[in-house]
Amino acid sequence: MTIAKNATTEKNVGAYEAKMQLIDTNGVMSDWLRVSLRIVSLVTTETTSATADATATATANTTNATVQASVDESIGLKYAEELRKKLELEQKKAKLDKSLVVVAVQPNAKIEKIDKLGGVEISFSKKMRVRGEFQTMAKGGQVKLGRILGVVPVSEIIRVDVIAGDDNNKDKLDFSWQVESFTATRLRLQLKFEQPLFVSVGVERESLRVWLNQTYFIDEDQLPLANATSLMTQWIPKQYADAST
In the chain, what are the domain boundaries? Predict the structure, then answer.
């Protein structure tokens, strides 16, 4: 018995049982016979070769992909390292540039102290340009500041006012003042009250207000006095006629 070639497909592979009758040359039919058979898939050399080629191609593709991935990873790591070094250089340069930047800071003024004899100490946060003409300034006076600026009233350079704490005491607060000394870091004023024993004797003390013109009070870097501190106010302590009081 011959099995057709196309019967050996993958879907027909397996074991089978069949019944058949045999007829001899004289036409006599035999009894039913039970026959067992097995269909096995025949793999041709061509198929095996094609499978091998496909396997080889897949292996080659996998190898190429692995190699390419390694190359890509190597390039990526190299780029990342170059980028890291570039960022480090930029950060170092930024720090260096920052350290070289000189921030222009304006000088500040502050009333440090008012003593019991009318002495007023004003300090500066930076060294100021000292003008000799300011050493003689006094209330109601004038200052000669050269041919360009000419003669300038003291009240345009510095103003000193006493603010009454008690309205009933206003007529007893007349005073005069003058510059006692002017250095790079200090300005000392001397107040002279006509009736010092009436100053700050009530519940509300008197206060001193000093205004310095920024145009004339500049530091050694040519920066003017900060606007926020050009007007200063401070409480005046109880005053005495002289040091022995």
Answer: 109-235
CB 109 within 8 A of CB 167: no
Q: Would you state the pLDDT for residue 190?
A: 96
Nearest partner of 192 among 100, 118, 101, judged by Cα = 118
Terminal-residue alpha carbon distance, the chain: 149
What's the mean pLDDT when you consider all of the chain? 77
Between these two residues, 134 and 66, which has the higher pLDDT value?
A: 134
Statement: residue 25 has pLDDT above 50: yes
Q: Which amino acid is at 117?
A: L
Please check whether residue 130 is in contact with residue 179, taking contact to mean a CB–CB distance below 8 angstroms: no
Q: What is the pLDDT of residue 46?
A: 46
The tokens for 117 are 């004899």
Mean pLDDT of the 56-61 span: 54
Question: Mean of the pLDDT values across residues 9-21?
Answer: 62
Mind giving me the DSSP string for the chain?
----GGG-SGGG-EEEEEEE--B-TT--B---EEEEEEE-----HHHHHHHHHHHHHHHHHHHHHHHHHHHHHHHHHHHHHHHHHHHHHHHHHHHHHHHH--------EEEEEE-TTSEEEEEESSPBPPPGGGGG-BTT-EEE-HHHH-EEEGGGTEEEEEE-SSGGGGGG--EEEEEEEE-SSEEEEEEEESSGGGTT-SSSPPEEEEEE-TTT-BBTTSPBPPGGGSEEEEEPPPP-SSTT-
User: How many residues in total does the chain contain?
Assistant: 245
In 3D space, the residue among 197, 199, 228 whose CA is nearest the CA of residue 214 turns out to be: 228
